[in-house]
Design goal:
Distance between the termini of chain A: 19 Å
Structural class of chain B: mainly alpha
Largest interface: A-B, 121 and 129 residues
Structural class of chain A: mainly alpha
Oligomer: heterodimer
Largest sheet of chain B: none
Strand content of chain A: under 5%
Number of strands of chain A: 0
Order of helices and strands of chain A: HHHHHHHHHHHHH
Number of helices of chain A: 13
Helix content of chain A: 55-70%
Number of strands of chain B: 0
Strand content of chain B: under 5%
Number of helices of chain B: 13
Largest sheet of chain A: none
Radius of gyration of chain B: 24 Å
Radius of gyration of chain A: 25 Å
Chain lengths: 327, 302
């Protein structure tokens, strides 16, 4: 990520004043190196060993037809990649991912912004409201998947409730009906992850000095004018960071689909994603070479999106607020 | 959107009937009050939407299966504690709680310790390659575990860590480091260099400075990343799914799913199991919610 700027270096520790002999300086330099190795070493080893290395391994195994046992010897060149890129199932999964990326931004962004602005005001029960809004974000995908799955099944609580209030005509097979299922998924995703957007936006809002809004209020600006012309523009960097994280998350979506729909229903109901395709056709099919190749394709798509986003969107935010660079 | 059908709205305090808090400077006119009422109303509806599915799970655990079949969206007719009692009395549940706790605590501990050390080096030392190392960790933020899961599984298997919690913990530490470092670096660089100078004049080494000055002042950031790591580990699904195939090693998410498919006819008990499994993360989070927002503020502002 050449575009990432390193954070500001806080201290320039005072070099001991006065002339020091070459030997002491050298010893100090070695001592510093030792400290650095001690401090950075463990994190770097773990990170490289379990994040970088697996990605590199995927790139390697992607060129093999390999069942996962013994050394990979059956070199197939780019055949795995040709298969992936010509497989209609993969195209479908990719299409679902793109749809989820776009709709997540469209649905969650405005709602979360509204909520954050709302919760940033001085309200009674403010802290209670905040905690409650974050509840879905904190509970696990398995709990969410099981709970929503039970509620949404044909004989579930949602249809039951619709019946009770006289809207029985709208009762539907929310989970397995092709075409409808992906909207169901979107509702669940929105419900689950909107709390994260709200947390980020609230954090961003707290960084905006109150004096600005107060000054505008004195000048006669209404609440909404203040939000529109002062708060929102200043919140821009946070929103762009959230959008980035949301896009990457949507491209990698796996848990909820796997838990609610499982391998087989996901493809018939039209909720498969690249990740479920990867697990279904890789590990579960015993084709680790092929699964690795799918991982590489996902990686490249995410990387391309990340780089484009950094280049064209985050550029304005001095390389991104979350990257910790100074303003 | 928000087509999400609401279930019984949980009985919260009737905020709508209370009077809006008098805003400090603004004139408390009728218009002002009604707009505040509208805000409370919106907040109430949203909370209802957010909590309805959770309420469904928790209340469902108190119902009986025949009740659930006859009236899936109803309240418990009579409160039936047997489902919760059965789950709490089962060794399987507590074994999974223990596994999840071990994994979450170990992950959190190591992520925080390794992350603090790395963030300290990145914010307080000038060295060649500093930008590159920072960029490397930042890049990790962009690629969640999904893309690495297949080879990660092979790696863990080759290390002989299948079906062991260590096989889950170590990769979780690795994938937790980027966020940890990115959140912590601003905290560590914020400490004024005069403090460090004063400390070094008093004969305090940089490592001594780390222990005595940096660590105490970085506590808010540490709490934030600690909670994030704990909750992420507690809820983690994909990695355990690949690594843990043995019931005895299951963490709660896997165990909950296995329980749900094993007792799929006993919906009430599944709901009881599910609600018990989410309690620890919920408690943890609500205790520290304020801290999380505070900690992220530093990171977002940069």
């Amino acid at each position: 990520m050449a575009t990432v700027t390193a954070p500001p270096l806080a201290p320039t520790p005072t070099q001991t004043a006065g002339p020091s002999t070459g030997a002491t300086a050298r010893r100090r330099r070695w001592a510093t190196r030792g400290e650095l190795a001690l401090l950075l070493g463990p994190a770097l080893v773990v990170f490289c060993g379990f994040v970088i290395l697996p990605v590199a391994m995927a790139a390697y195994y992607g060129f093999f037809s390999w069942s996962g046992y013994g050394p990979a010897v059956d070199f197939v060149g780019i055949r795995n990649y040709v298969t992936i890129l010509t497989d209609p199932d993969f195209h479908e999964a990719l299409g679902h991912n793109v749809f989820i990326v776009v709709m997540s931004l469209v649905l969650q962004g405005p709602i979360a912004l509204g909520l954050a602005l709302l919760l940033n005001r001085k309200l009674r029960f403010q802290s209670v409201i905040r905690v409650l809004i974050f509840v879905p974000y904190v509970i696990s995908e398995v709990v969410v998947g099981l709970g929503w799955g039970l509620m949404l099944q044909s004989s579930g609580a949602v249809n039951g409730l619709l019946d009770k209030v006289g809207l029985g005509a709208f009762a539907a097979d929310w989970i397995s009906e092709p075409g409808r299922a992906i909207w169901t998924l979107l509702v669940i995703i929105t419900w689950k992850y909107i709390g994260f957007a709200v947390i980020l936006f609230l954090a961003g809002l707290q960084g905006i000095p109150e004096e600005l809004s107060e000054a505008a209020a004195i000048d006669g600006a209404s609440f909404w004018q203040i939000q529109r012309h002062i708060v929102l523009p200043l919140l821009g960097p946070t929103v762009r960071i959230w959008a980035f994280l949301s896009i990457i998350g949507s491209l990698q979506l796996f848990d909820l689909v796997w838990i609610i729909w499982g391998q087989y229903v996901a493809s018939t109901a039209g909720t498969s994603t690249m990740a479920t395709y990867m697990v279904a056709n890789g590990r579960n099919a015993g084709s680790y070479g092929y699964g690795s190749a799918v991982a590489v394709v996902m990686f490249l798509i995410s990387l391309a999106v990340a780089l484009l986003y950094q280049r064209f969107v985050l550029r304005r935010d001095t390389a991104g607020a979350l990257t910790g660079s100074s303003k | 959107m928000m087509a999400t059908p609401t279930l019984q709205k949980p009985v919260t305090e009737s905020a709508t009937t209370r009077r809006a808090p008098a805003a400090s400077a603004a004139p408390v006119g009728g218009a002002r009050r009604s707009s505040s009422l509208a805000i409370y109303f919106v907040a109430l509806v949203l909370i209802g939407l957010m909590l309805a599915p959770v309420a469904y799970i928790i209340l469902g655990g108190f119902r009986s299966n025949s009740e659930i079949t006859l009236d899936p969206s109803g309240l418990p007719g009579e409160w039936n504690w047997a489902n919760y009692g059965d789950v709490l009395g089962s060794g399987v549940f507590w074994g999974q709680v223990a596994n999840s706790t071990i994994a979450a605590v170990a992950t959190t501990l190591f992520v925080v310790v390794l992350g603090l050390m790395a963030a300290f080096a990145l914010s307080r030392y000038a060295f060649r390659g500093r930008g590159a190392v920072y960029a490397l960790f930042t890049a990790g933020l962009m690629f969640p575990m999904t893309v690495a899961i297949t080879p990660l599984y092979i790696l863990v298997r080759d290390l002989g860590l299948m079906n062991s919690l260590a096989g889950v913990i170590v990769p979780q530490i690795a994938f937790g480091l980027p966020v940890t470092i990115i959140v912590l670096v601003p905290f560590l660089s914020a400490i004024p260099k005069e403090l460090q100078e004063a400390a070094s004049i008093d004969g305090c080494s940089r490592l001594g400075f780390f222990w005595r000055m940096v660590l105490p002042l970085a506590v808010p950031g540490v709490i934030t990343v600690g909670i994030l790591a704990f909750v992420a580990s507690w809820n983690s699904y994909m990695l355990p799914l690949f690594i843990l195939n043995n019931d005895a090693a299951f963490t709660l998410p896997l165990g909950t799913q296995a329980f749900a498919s094993q007792y799929s006819v006993d919906t009430a008990k599944v709901l009881a199991f599910t609600s018990l499994s989410m309690i620890p993360a919920l408690i943890f989070f609500s205790l520290f919610e304020r801290r999380i927002v505070g900690g992220l503020t530093g990171a977002v502002k940069g």
